[in-house]
Amino acid sequence: MANDGRLQGGMAFWGVAAALNVIMIGATLQTPLYTLYQRWFGFNEIVLTMIYAMYMAGTLVAYIVFGVVIAVLAAGVIIIGVRYR
Predict the structure, then answer these.
(1) Which run of H or of E encompasses 23?
(2) What are the DSSP calls for 70-83, one per residue?
(3) What is the C-alpha separation between 72 and 45, in angstroms, rounded?
(4) What residue ranges do the domains of the chain occupy?
(5) How far apart are CA 64 and CA 70, in angstroms?
(6) What are the tens digits of pLDDT across the range 52-80?
């Protein structure tokens, strides 16, 4: 079988695992800053809870929106690839 530029076997798995780790670390990196903001700006616990809730809601919306966008784009690429193969 010819190599078509895709990672094979274990390399593909570890590549996806590394990318997922980078995304997860980047998504949670700013969380410890919220307690510092609470101290610096004088937020009470309700405001800090609302900040966490808005962050969670924004992350959820981003996952849904970008998941749909990627699914549509990937389907288009697959259809184009099959059509012109």
Answers:
(1) helix 10-28
(2) HHHHHHHHHHHHHH
(3) 41
(4) 30-83
(5) 10
(6) 888 889 888 888 888 788 777 776 666 65
